[in-house]
């Protein structure tokens, strides 16, 4: 892509800061390419981003440094930062640890149906970490790998049965159940669902 990848020794003087000493920073999922949010960084926020390898912004509403996800746990792990051709905008490629938007959406710009699996994986990861009471996902993680494997096997059989019968709507429903339990299995084994996406992308080349 055009522009420069910012290294730790990058000279902030090369950037074109606005009159408030800020520069817009666009967060993009490094795997899916989805635009996640737009924030602003001052020099301190950029330096902290480079140091922590997690996105840090300047909050214009609170007038303070804002480490994205520090409270919620939905941090944005930085893989690379690129400078556009005019040196007045940053593109920050990240691996989000959970939903980016405060509404719980993957992106602050909304999400389409193609991002539902991405959202599902993020929610399951949160359930594993926080274990909210009354959650079926929490129940599965508490029961452990054997219970999860049993459910994957059961749902696989249900998909096969549904595929041979009518109405076919049941096939879609059973497939959704299987996908959900498969994502739980991946999370239980500490394999990110995004690793599966990477394999699919590689096979599609």
Specify the overall morphology. elongated
Helical content stands at 40-55%
Structural class: alpha+beta
CATH homologous superfamily name of the largest domain?
Answer: Phosphoribosyl-AMP cyclohydrolase
Strand percentage, roughly? 15-25%
Number of structurally distinct domains: 2
What is the CATH architecture descriptor of the largest domain?
Roll
CATH topology of the largest domain: Ubiquitin-like (UB roll)
By DSSP (H or I, 4+ residues per run), the number of helices equals: 6
Low-confidence stretches: none
Number of strands: 7
Give an account of the 3D structure.
The chain has 6 helices and 7 strands, in the order βββαββββααααα. The chain is of the alpha+beta class and 205 residues long. The chain has 2 domains: 93 residues, Ubiquitin-like (UB roll) (Roll), CATH 3.10.20.810; 91 residues, Helix Hairpins, CATH 1.10.287. The protein has a 5-stranded mixed sheet, with helices on one face. A two-stranded antiparallel sheet has the order 4-5.
Question: What would you say about this model in short?
Answer:
With 205 residues, the protein is an alpha+beta fold. 41% of the residues lie in helices and 19% in strands.
Notable characteristics:
205 residues, Helix Hairpins, 6 helices, Ubiquitin-like (UB roll), two-stranded antiparallel ribbon, 5-stranded mixed sheet, alpha+beta, 2 domains, 41% helix, 19% strand
List the helices and strands and how they pair.
Elements: E1 4-5, E2 23-29, E3 35-41, H1 43-52, E4 56-59, E5 64-67, E6 76-83, E7 90-96, H2 116-130, H3 136-143, H4 145-164, H5 169-188, H6 193-203
Parallel strand pairs: 2-7
Antiparallel strand pairs: 1-6, 2-3, 4-5, 6-7
Helix pairs in contact: 2-5, 4-5
């Amino acid at each position: 892509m055009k522009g420069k990848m910012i290294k730790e020794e990058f000279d902030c003087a090369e950037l074109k800061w606005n009159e408030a000493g800020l520069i817009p920073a666009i967060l993009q999922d490094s795997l899916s390419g989805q635009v996640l949010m737009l924030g602003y960084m001052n020099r301190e926020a950029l330096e902290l981003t480079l140091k922590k390898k997690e996105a840090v912004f300047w909050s214009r509403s609170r007038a303070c440094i804002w480490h994205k996800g520090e409270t919620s746990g939905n941090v944005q792990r930085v893989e690379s930062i690129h400078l556009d051709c005019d040196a007045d905008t940053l593109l920050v490629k990240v691996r989000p640890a959970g939903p980016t938007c405060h509404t719980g959406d993957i992106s602050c710009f909304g999400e389409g149906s193609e991002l539902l699996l991405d959202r599902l994986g993020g929610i399951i990861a949160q359930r594993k970490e926080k274990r909210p009471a009354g959650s079926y996902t929490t129940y599965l993680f508490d029961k452990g790998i054997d219970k999860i494997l049993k459910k994957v096997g059961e749902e696989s059989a249900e998909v096969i049965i549904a595929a041979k019968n009518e109405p076919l709507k049941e096939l879609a429903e059973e497939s959704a159940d299987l996908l959900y339990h498969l994502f739980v299995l991946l999370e239980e084994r500490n394999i990110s669902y995004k690793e599966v996406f990477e394999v699919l992308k590689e096979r599609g080349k």
